[in-house]
Amino acid sequence: MKPRKLSELPASSIRAVFSDLDGTITTNGTLLPSTYQSLCAIRAAGLKLVIVSGRPAGWADCLMRLLPLDAMIFENGAGLALRSGDTIEFLNLAGTSAAEPGALHQVFEALRREYPELRLAKDQPYRLFDYAIDICEEPPHLSSDVVEDILKRLDQTPGVTAKLSNIHINFWMGEYTKRAACEFLLANNFLGGLTQDEVVFVGDSPNDEPLFGFFAHSVGTDNVQVYFDRMKDLPKFICSRHEGFGFEEVSELLVKARTKS
User: Fold this and answer.
1) 81, 79, 56, 54: which is closest to 67 by C-alpha?
2) Fold for domain 97-173?
């Protein structure tokens, strides 16, 4: 089903914002001052704020201390960082069997025998559970044909799960997902008894697809449309602006609705 305009989102019923990070909150890889202000405005309006990202555990620790977040799901659902008073708590959602750096490295080296130009993302040292191949975060960028072949090879590797983001290919051992992590967060009342229908999710790429399908109120920034031909579950609503500017659009709508109420 074609996404509806963002203006049709029932903003007054929303109590929390769950959002991807890269290409959704950031713009050209940078958190703009205006987008940071949007994050602060969301919290000031009394809404909960959660990042759901493929970024590593090390980033989660940093971002929880720098941004006005209630929680951050990291490494595509492997772990959860929670704000508890003045402290940050970390929960392992992947299980001990999911941490297989040796096996993952063997998979990566096998790919490099076919494509010697492959390199791991610069944030790899801060990851606990997955590997991230840089496709276009830094030059030189991988061609679309190479990216497609890598995804195909990973999908054919027993025990490996792979997801494409706008900058990386993430792959890991285990069955954990962004969706399962969001379900865990909601089911355990870490955010004050929120229900699924009280959350709006904002994303921009194929690794957000499970949450586009899971949340009744899912929103894509304008740049997500380049991936529509490879996605089954599309966002229910679409922004008119791209990347962080699209997120600001969501924030403006939600804050305005809270002010009216």
Assistant:
1) 81
2) Hypothetical Protein Ta0175; Chain: A, domain 2 (3.90.1070)
4-93+176-260: CATH class:
alpha beta
CB 49 within 8 A of CB 163: no
Backbone region of residue 106 per phi and psi (left: phi > 0; alpha: psi in -120 to 50; beta: other values): alpha
Strand partners, 218: 201
Taking only the tens place, the pLDDT of each residue in 63-98 is 999 999 999 999 999 999 999 889 999 999 987 555
C-alpha–C-alpha distance, residues 66 and 35, integer Å: 14
Q: Could you tell me which residues come within 8 angstroms of residue 171 by beta carbon, excluding any fewer than 6 positions away?
A: 104, 107, 130, 131, 133, 154, 160, 161, 162, 163
The pTM of the full predicted model, rounded to 2 decimals, is 0.94
Q: What does the block give as tokens for 48?
A: 């909960």
